[in-house]
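Morning run. Coffee first, then this:
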Amino acid sequence: MTTMQEDRTSVLVIEEHDLLREGLESIFRQQQDFNVVASTSSIKEAVKKVYKIHPQIIVLGINVDFEEPEVCSKLIKKNPGVKILLLAPPGKEKVIADAFKRGASGCVLTNVMTEDLVQAIKMV
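And here it is:
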């Protein structure tokens, strides 16, 4: 017998800014399809968590200073099959393209509406 938690898509949120991270968690917790299994502000901590909890989807916030698209390949190496949805500000096209080359599955811009973010994570 499966529980309701097991039927939901497990999500790890990685976002440097507390307010944004907590907002993302709140959005996903309000959805019946998602189970936020962890969140962190640190890429280093996220790599450790991915290895332990094996989320199905990672929402990776790319801030203005983010220049480490190789983090996608690190996360996938720790949890093969994980889908990574980037949440990026406008103007980060090069970093986004590099992240896709390293395994990112999708991207939405930070000015996206909540409904569109939820739809994007369902499609990833």
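The chain has a mean pLDDT of 90. Good start to the day.
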